[in-house]
């Protein structure tokens, strides 16, 4: 989860994610090594968003999120 937070912070601050010698870069290398592809990210995205949707109060959630 720290990688997601790190990327979100960079995106908010700079408008893009810059991958240098960061945890995110190491994570990307591991994903590449194991053949993780776009289809895998779609599954994870769905699961993550559904989990967040269940965890936050209904008035704080919107489909735009």
What features would you describe in this structure?
The protein has about 60 residues and is mainly α. It has two domains: about 1-35, no CATH class; about 35-65. It is about 65% helix and about 0% strand. It contains three helices and no strands. The protein has helices at about 1-15, 25-35, 40-55. It is globular. About 0% of the residues are buried.
List keywords for this structure.
metal-binding, 2 domains, heme binding, globular, 65 residues, 3 helices
Task: Provide a concise account of the structure shown.
This protein is 65% helix and 0% strand.
Secondary structure elements and pairings:
Layout: H1 2-14, H2 23-33, H3 38-55
Taken as a percent bin, the fraction of beta residues is under 5%
Integer average pLDDT: 83
Q: Number of folding domains?
A: 2
Helix and strand content put the structural class at: mainly alpha
Q: Flag low-confidence runs.
A: none
The succession of helices and strands, N to C, reads HHH
Major sheet details: none
Structure summary, number of beta strands: 0
Number of helices: 3
Report the end-to-end length measured between terminal Cα atoms.
18 Å
Indicate the overall shape.
Answer: globular
Rounded to an integer in angstroms, the radius of gyration calculated over CA atoms is 14 Å
- Helix fraction, binned, reads 55-70%
Keywords: Cytoplasm, Heme, Iron, Metal-binding, Nucleus
Subunit structure: Homodimer.
Catalytic activity: Fe(III)-heme b-[protein] + nitric oxide + H2O = Fe(II)-heme b-[protein] + nitrite + 2 H(+)
Subcellular location: Cytoplasm; Nucleus
């Amino acid at each position: 989860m720290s990688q997601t937070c790190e990327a979100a912070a960079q995106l908010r601050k700079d408008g893009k994610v810059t991958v240098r010698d960061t945890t995110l870069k190491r994570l990307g290398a591991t994903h590449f090594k194991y053949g993780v592809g776009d289809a895998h990210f779609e599954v994870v995205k769905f699961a993550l968003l559904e989990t967040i949707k269940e965890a936050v109060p209904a008035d704080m959630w919107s489909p735009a999120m």
